Amino acid sequence: MFKKRAINKRLQPKSSLENGPQTEELAEPHNTSNLPLKSDDLTPMIHEKFNNTSDLKVKKYINLTIYYIENQINQQELNQNIIGKIKQADEITTETVYASIAINEVEDTDDLSYAILRMIKGSVALFIEGTPKIILASIPVKESRALSRPENESQVTGPQLGFNESLATNVSVIRRYLSTPDLCNEFFVFGTRTNTAVSLLYIKGIASEDLVNRVKHKLNQIEVDALIDSSVLNQHLDDHSWSIFPQMLLTERPDRVSDGLLNGKIALFVDGSTNVILCPFTFIEFFESREDYNIRWPIATFIRLLRIVAMFLSIFFTSIYVAALTFHYEIIPQALLVPLGESRSRVPFPPLFEAVLLEFIIELLREAGARLPTKVGQTMGIVGGIVIGTAAVQAGFTSNILLIIVALSALASFTAPSYTMGNVIRIIRFPILFMAGFLGFYGVMFGFCLLLIHLIRLSSLGAPYLSPFYPPRFQDWVDSVIRLPMKYTNKRPTLTRPADVQKYDPDKVN
Question: Which of 12, 150, 188, 190 has the fewest C-beta atoms under 10 angstroms from its C-beta?
Fold first, then answer.
């Protein structure tokens, strides 16, 4: 079994001068590796390893045999920089092959399992008769889409760049933002069947060594057969896997990842995924956006407060309406009693059933609009909401006032910058709604207390989830719900316990 391990050294390009075989090694009279000395014996072994797959190609030239997976390598580079160059040599030996190949990443190995893995990743295996080693030249097909705008984290001001599916491209984008040699990049491999590359990025001198070691320890504990996306790795790293709340951020914005690294956080890149894991993360940070730093501080503070109010509105507004109509008529102003009575005069259902029905319809429309093509989905959401809402009121299934309340609650749930936190808000509404329908305001308060206790108990990589409010860290309040001028945000948050606390000298900002 291919064990998960750090592969910093093994995946680095090797030059022909540094890694060419020594003469003394070639002069050994017996074979100490697990490789045969003849291609006639090696070829069946490779075919067996690949289960006789049809895209395994074998080419023979004099005493050189070339093995590769057809769709994994660049055919033009193979013909020009490998086969074409080798044919120009007077004789084919290990030294002449190293000297002839015009490829940067070349290495040799006597481990057949490792050679098979490298062939899957886009390397060509070259075997010379009588030599118990395989030369590997990496020429993978570089198929990746161009960098484009983020799909799920749009903003008006600031960079309009998002990650793509290429691990190397995503890391290079971060290096473009953070041009410092202190940016450390460590590689890991996960999945005994997928062998997915994962990069762990942090800034040495800012990130806490304890935090880095904790993440490495968690990564070393993971044993899976497949890792397809960063969201899967995110769930393996959670401190509380049973909680509905996300404990790490999944983002597709390089500027947000760079800002997090500068604050002492750690980023995890998964090959083939457009989302990057940023950790640790707190509850309040899910309602912050990188755009908040690109606008004036009073506007940024107002927008953050608006998101917090919208969260409470989305969770509790419908529940308060149901509790008031079911148990607590006395709190409704007298001026509203007549419109409420007229609106509900034709509705044969209790407020709880009416609210659950509308919330369910809203969720159906939202999910249908997300799964359909973009233009059709937008039309479906708008037309479906208008048609179904109007028909429901005219048919007497619901009241006008509740339709407005449910629509406002659904609209408020979209204000969260994080898609995962928006989904959490959607789900939490339902249990609190049922508590309000059966227990009134006592149920709403009971649900709020349960929610608060659960948030207090949560942590993200050992850091308190409700920081900086619990435990109270007043020095971090200047950049949480409110955002003060840059002069007062000169210190990194204490959440990550950064090695370098001071960002800049506040006296030299203005």
Answer: 12
Over residues 274-293, the pLDDT tens digits come to 999 999 999 999 999 888 88
The residues, ordered by sequence, that sit 6+ positions from 205 with a Cβ below 8 Å of its Cβ are 182, 499, 500
| Orientation of helix 351-371 relative to helix 400-412, angle to 10° | 50
- Quote the CA–CA distance of 292 and 131 in Å, as a whole number: 62
**How is the chain split into domains, by residue range?**
16-138, 167-283, 295-457
Q: Give the DSSP H/E element, type plus range, for residue 422.
A: helix 419-439
Q: How many helices (H) and strands (E) does the chain have?
A: 18, 12
Beta-ladder partners of 136 = 107, 125
Nearest 10 degrees: Cα torsion 253, 257, 259, 263 = 160
pLDDT of res. 236: 93
The two tokens of residue 461 are 């990589």
Cα distance between residue 378 and residue 376, in whole Å: 6
Collapsing DSSP states into helix, strand and coil, what is residue 241? Answer: coil
Give the integer Cα–Cα distance in Å for 440 and 438.
6
Please give the model's pTM, rounded to 2 decimal places: 0.82
What's the pLDDT at 130? 87
Beta-carbon contacts of residue 192 (< 8 Å; ≥ 6 apart)? 1, 2, 224, 225
* Tokens 């570089």 sit on residue: 142
Q: Are 96 and 16 in contact (CB under 8 A)?
A: no
Question: What's the residue count for the chain?
Answer: 510
Q: Per residue in 299-309, pLDDT tens? A: 999 999 999 99
